[in-house]
Amino acid sequence: xxxxxxxxLLFPLAGGVINAVIxxxxxxxxxxxxxxxxxxxxxxxxxxxxxxxxxxxxHLIFFDxxxxxxxxxxFDVYYDPLAAVMxxxxxxxxxxxxxxxxxxxxxxxxxxxxxCYLNLFVFSMLVIALADSLLFVYLGWEGVGFCSYAxxxxxxTNLDYALAGRKAFILTRIGDVTFGIALALFFYxxxxxxxxxxxxHATTLSVTMATVFGLLxxxxxxxxxxxxxxxxxxxxxxxxxxxxxALIHAATMVTAGAYLLMRLFPVxxxxxxxxxxxxxxxxxxxxxxxxxxxxxxxxxxxLAYSTISQVGYMILGVGAGDFxxxxxxxxxxxxxxxxxxLGAGCIIQAxxxxxxxxxxxxxxxxLPHVYYPFLIGCLSLAAFPMIGGFLSKDRVxxxxxxxxxxxxxxxxxxxxxxxxxxxxxxxxxxxxxxxxRPDGRTxxxxxxxxxxxxxxxxxLAILAFCDGLLNLPFGxxxxxxxxxxxxxxxxxxxxxxxxxxxxxxxxGDAALVLVVLTLTYFVFRRPRPDFWGSLNETLFTxxxxxxxxxxxxxxxxxxxxxxxxxxxxERGINAGFENTAGGFKVLSSLMGLWTNGKLSxxxxxxxxxxxxxxxxxxxxxxx
Amino acid sequence: xNIYAVIFYILGVLIVAFTVMAITRRNLMHAIVFxxxxxxxxxxxxxxxGAPFLAIMEVVIYAGAIMVLFLFIVMMLEIExxxxxxxxxxxxxxxxxxxxxxxxxxxxxxxxxxxxxSHTLPMxxxxxxxxxxFLFEKYWLGVEIASYLLFVALVGALYLGRGEETxx
Amino acid sequence: xxxxxxxxxxxxxxxxxxxxxxVCALARRNLIMILIGVEVMLSAAGxxxxxxxxxxxxxxxxxxxxxxxxxAASEVAIGLALILYSRRRTGTINADRYNLMKG
Lengths: 623, 168, 103
What we know:
heterotrimer; B: mainly alpha; C: mainly alpha
């Protein structure tokens, strides 16, 4: 088992390193095959590990990393059902994205750098998913941050894209700060970085400390998972190549935050306060992002806001005390969101790098191979009854609804409203882009795209369609995923809601989704870019959040920095230094008279100093 | 004031006298001969202070090897004569000598007025055997490093000293 | 047990020797004489060490004299080679003629 997991981590790392070191010397095909092999190999290993012992909880040590006194940090993994399913999902989705990338990047000359980062990205995520030592997790956490920066700013010659990469890096870094603080505190309280140990001994913490940990970890998760108030980097992250967006949204980056909370669930579970804040963050982010997605015109930005919204559900699930639901949603989200992004990549290339959905249209006829998978993805995102996305979202909503604290009812209402809005924005995008209309695209405005890119969509589409089977709320295989995850501390197999509540919520949800879907069809059958009227600007800019940050934080900071620079630095410190230096210059020109280049003079000075020192020493002697 | 002390003071005077003679000679050859005398007197002093092995080393290394090396160099180079008048010859000595005077005066003042430093030395001999044992037990690493130093010096001297015609 | 002299007298003798060496290195302009001055200073340092070894009845002081001698020997070897080399380059061994260090 140790060997399998070690090789699993080694595969993408080796792929990345090989490409980084000698990728340029290899033929293009070889470099691509290495990159794909790195991830596919990891997937095979994950599957083998899953088959051999996915249901066990194992703590395996590869080797020691740092060992100082009682402090020790090892390269070790904590392989439990949660991690098993997570790495299976990550490697599977990443494999498909890698293969897709081969076709997608066929015209880009910088493929070596691309594949190298892509592999390292997957490696870092696998580290987060598996690692036991929190230091090791942190390594992966930062690795993910770095790779996302490098990939979002992949086309760095475009200034806007490079800035988007920087923005993502800085905002996730703001989140990471608290993770670092939490690490230090964990060590202070537990004298260990081991996840397993911390989870097992979490109950020794006081409620206050648990609250502090919960909030610190939440802030870290906010940065990575693009939750309010750190959302703004994710829409801009669309600057990267589309497969990268798929990777960031589905498999590697944004789920890391939610996953971390699930991994440390026993700690945050102790504090009602922390759970409440987590749930609130999730619910409000969900609604906020749904609103923002309503008015976007860029197909990738619609998807980006939908990701923020869906990750909000995962966080809400954790906050409601049912991380199984959150994890279920994480899984189905990763399938349909990677499907949607890869489909969007096909559309964008077919429409000659056109992102604006109002300039598409007629795509049902023109791109039938993309149409059907994309439809499945949209249905899943919009929680069409009985599809995976519906069941997972329903479970999160139910867990929120039956939570004893009354304020969770409000969270439920918010999240439910967001779920209905999801239908609207998803199908607004879908209808506008795909339905026939007179001003839409014509066949000669469509560029051919490789067959491979559309073929890749199908496995994802099938999974997105069927993954509800994993955790059906009824029937002989009900709650399969939840039962599988039962060994993970804090997992609830059955929510324990009365049957009436459960069925009522599910059926009501399904009915309302269908109604809203029908309404959306009638409203957005024809493209209506100005449907929201005066609200449009507010929604489009996502409630001016970027503008607010710019004016409330970035600008004052710049002004403060300018004051520091001009007044304090130049006038104060610099001038001080210059005057001091001037004084020394005069002084040294006097001293320069001594330095006549004669050795004997220098030696004489040496002796003079020696004599002086001796005299002082003896005079200061206490007689 | 026993016999050892008498020997010590005689040796001290000898050493200082030889050294003064050595450093004031115009002729380098004379200077070196006086210096050999000074070093031999120092070696006897070492013996008196309980270090017979070091006394022999002093003779072998300082009075022998080093001074012979100096002699060779002096013979190899024909030194330009330092022809100066009386005052010009004296001038460079002025500052160093006055500094030396200050230092010595300070030291003497200290010795006369300080009380705690009148610890007399017991007469003990460190046999070469014991000394060698001690050296190689406690300072074997230092000895090794010193041998490296000598080796490096050898290489350096060879490099610097090779003739121009061999491609310097 | 017989006693030789107070330790301070050894120190004074070493100080005189050391200062004589320093004066030699300072006052003479001949590079060889400067080197001789340095040798005298090193020898004086050795004298202090031996006196200290006797004062505290510890052999460490004597051990250090061995190292001093090693340093002195290598210093002389390099120093004389340098003098030869400089002489070959510039034709003089007068320290005052070497004024490349003048700032």
